[in-house]
Amino acid sequence: MRDGTIVVAGASLAGLRGAEALRAHGFAGRLILVGDEPHLAYDRPPLSKHVLTGEVAPGATTLPGVGALEAEWRLGVKALGLDRAGRTLLLADGERLAFDRLLIATGARARPWPAPEEARLSGVHTLRSRDDAASLAAGLAARPRRVLILGAGFIGCEAASSIRALGLPVTVVDPEPAPLAQALGSVIGGFVAGRMEAAGVDVRLGARVTHLEGDRAVRRARLADGGTIEADLVVVALGAVRNTGWLAGAGLRADEGGLSSDGACRALDEAGRPDEAIFAAGDVARFPHPLYGHRPVALEHWGNAVAQGAHAARAMLHGADAVGAYAELPAFWSSQFGLNIKSLGLTEGADAVAIVQGSPRAGRFLAVYGRAGRTIAAVSVNAGRWLPAYEGPIRDGAPFPPITGGADQPDPEPVPPGLPSREAA
Ligand SMILES: Cc1cc2nc3c(=O)[nH]c(=O)nc-3n(C[C@H](O)[C@H](O)[C@H](O)COP(=O)(O)OP(=O)(O)OC[C@H]3O[C@@H](n4cnc5c(N)ncnc54)[C@H](O)[C@@H]3O)c2cc1C
């Protein structure tokens, strides 16, 4: 397909990179990007890092390449509904956009604090968008007496690191026994906890906040054990929810966990059949990963949004058979508390982890995760250059622990990784 109309719903990373790939692969027709945010596509990773520390202005995060794309933009306009039979997207301003192909890249939003009236207290923030980051940065500039962060996942920990760097007192509360436990397990998470404490963060693990209290402005959090934490700024960092609500009634297989798609990024209908005209990419997509037994996975990784957007674009133009199944190895990075953490593969389901290079004591190491005797993931901490060597063993499902052969390295000692059970998640 070279002509016709392609509409992209969600004008952020996956949508932009998908649109660029359409042009790069020869699409010469009409290309329209619809985004509910008023901004041109921007980068989210800096929002919890250099934007919070004040080193980068929120407005300086626009993604490179936005201006060069030959496309029509509908910004500040939400896609409200999808008429699949009529191949039409309904916009909040009443416009109906007919399409030959649609790329759904509506991503995810921050999971809100579950009690809406408490979430509305001033001083309670989430962190997903540029506007969220600007509002949080303004709150921090007022020098709150204590910042409370709910959730020690990547965004909670990165925010804690940035806010400590501003010299503000920070408490982090998480029900798991370690930060980053869902993604890395409590063995590696325990190392990160040590760094957080060394940086002066009050880390409360195995604890749960039940209520936020205050009169108009938040004043304190109440814990399940009856204790309280006084805080005048709260960051709710409880993970993300996929933006699929607007697809209600469209007959697609979609829920808060994502929009199901096949290996060629085609959206699946409720019966599990691919829709030849509708594609999904980025955080919103839940797709079968060939490296993980084709089990559906939904990622929140920058690199996935880029690669999957491009894969979907090629499938739109050249057909599903021509592109094959999307099989990019999941990868992400994080920087916090002086640690550069990089990951390849998925740790989910791992039954063992072994430190195969370096050591936590030295502050740089590489940990490999195994499942049923096979290598499934690797994480480097301040040792990114060691990581690429593990891509092959992960792709091949090489025996775990992988034989490193390093003469200066003792034999790795696998231990249970301390990943929470999925039921507890
Ligand atoms: C604070 C923060 C830090 C991060 N740091 C890292 C990191 O260090 N490393 C890493 O690998 N990843 C990181 N990520 C994750 C990474 O940014 C995401 O994976 C990436 O943004 C996903 O891109 P996307 O385009 O799929 O979705 P999104 O970026 O969520 O974009 C979706 C867009 O669609 C819009 N939209 C939603 N619904 C509609 C609708 N109905 N109509 C129109 N538009 C709609 C949304 O408003 C949004 O603009 C971070 C994310 C955040 C929030």
Write structural notes for this entry.
Helix content is 20%, strand content 31%. It has 425 residues and is of the alpha/beta class. It has a six-stranded mixed beta sheet, covered by helices on one side. A five-stranded parallel beta sheet has the order 9-16-10-11-12, with helices on one face. Helix 1 runs parallel beside helix 6. It is globular. The structure holds flavin-adenine dinucleotide. Flavin-adenine dinucleotide (FAD) binds next to helix 1, strand 2, helix 6 and strand 24.
What tags apply to this protein structure?
425 residues, alpha/beta, FAD/NAD(P)-binding domain, Enolase-like, domain 1, five-stranded parallel beta sheet, binds flavin-adenine dinucleotide
The oligomerization state is single chain
* Measured distance between first and last alpha carbons: 43 Å
Count of DSSP E strands?
A: 28
Q: Helicity level, as a percent range? A: 10-25%
Stretches where pLDDT is under 50 for at least 5 consecutive residues are: none
Widest beta sheet: strand line-up: 3-2-1-7-21-20
- Describe the global form: globular
The radius of gyration is 22 Å
* Structural class computed from helices and strand pairing: alpha/beta
- The CATH topology of the largest domain turns out to be FAD/NAD(P)-binding domain
The portion of residues forming beta strands comes to 25-35%
